[in-house]
Fold each of these.
Amino acid sequence: MYNAATSQRIFNELMNGRIINKTSLDNSNSFTENPLFTEIIDNLDDYRTQYKMSGYEFVESSCYIYIRERNADTNSLKTDITMKACVLLLLMGKYLTENNYRISKLIDPSGGLTEADFEGIQDMPDTAEILEKSAMKRDFSASIKPILVERNIMLQKIGSNAFILSDSGKAFFDEIVDNYQG
């Protein structure tokens, strides 16, 4: 049986364009089970029906869930926000590669990208031009919060100004790497 209070929180998250990840960061910056994700998985058929009746498609993977309009052409070009997220993740990957950082800097709770890293990304050749052509602010740091953090693709570590990828962020980053290798 679903939990009404948790269901309302889920509704607010999904309707505001956020992704619900399998895990979230706790107060000690360790990944912990996300109760919203667990609620959905425990009552998956109910949630699928609820959003289907409201004109949405429930998009689920083993580590994240989000909704999109049911009539959306999944074979068409990705949405504007998806394209922007992809550009930001690509720039992060380029920065890690060019500076010989391990991927763990981006995904491990003991790592994280800091403001100094964001400045380093901003200072890379072509970053400002790429951001501008992608219809984002020319400032990399200013683009991170509304596109990645507010949608739960990237998480801010508790008590610090460092950011790591969430479950969905890791999956999207892996997809980008797979698409652009070889």
Note: DSSP finds nine helices and seven strands in the chain.
Amino acid sequence: MTRSDTALQRLGDEAFVSLTTFRRSGEPVSTPVWIARDGEDLVVITPTESGKVKRIRNSSRVELRPCSRRGQVPDGAPVVSARASIDAGDSAARATGVIKKKYGAEFRVVMFVELLLARRKKPRVILRLAGI
């Protein structure tokens, strides 16, 4: 395991991380997300139609930093570079279970509120994050 892989793995212990994806222009877009470990990778769950998914389809390059629920990154927080891939297969179901286990009741409440507000279940994918 390389030094950056170790830093990436440590982010799996965080409650929230700031996930930065990049537009075609190279402009960064950061979003606070839940994160969990799935084997050697980290995983994030997101709606299929999210901007993150669109940007990752264009470029797999991402950056991660620990953050608060609202996306505030502490001063001096390390930036960890990674590669993201979109996972919608069988391993996506397992990764979703990993996130459900880590976040427990909070996950279920957020998904229920989203269902009420959207009036439909949003299809989701797993973003699998691996070290460079």
Note: The chain is about 35% helix and 35% strand.
Amino acid sequence: MSAAKSPTRSAGTASSGAHQACPHALEGDRSDLVRIGAVARQLGVSERTLRYYEEVGLVRPALHEPGGSRRYCDADIARIQRIREMQELLGFNLDEIRTMISAEDRLDALREEYRAITSRPRQLRLIEAAYHELTQMREIVAAKAARLDDFLEKLDSRIERHRSQLSGVAPTPPRPTSRVSPR
């Protein structure tokens, strides 16, 4: 799926508004597609947020109906949940999310190609490409984690200074930080 490359689509028939992740929309079956308002309520975001995600190329609804109404399939909803997870859990901004989503899209394409071929040399090249995508994604997450660790260290230092002032004792060095256990 290449949602980040084509953020706008024409309104009208199911075939003009569908994408690969929702093959039923290509066939004209709209029964599984969910209206934008229902998706917004389900995910706890505003309709404007969903439209903005589309505007900046993060998500592409399965269907644009005449009048601009949008409908989403399960894959679209899962993608939006992933975007929200990256915002809330990892603290990523939209540029970082775009980078991660694009990498995930490339991984999906590599996986599809891998499954479709039998040439072992080509499969190994695809595995290598996926390995590089994953290591780049890990570097982005590790850089964010390092910034969070640094922030935690600074907070621990300030907390210890205040604790020592309250107790009248010289400050002790900050404890090692861990992202797993909040302070």
Note: The CA atoms of residues 43 and 159 lie 36 Å apart.
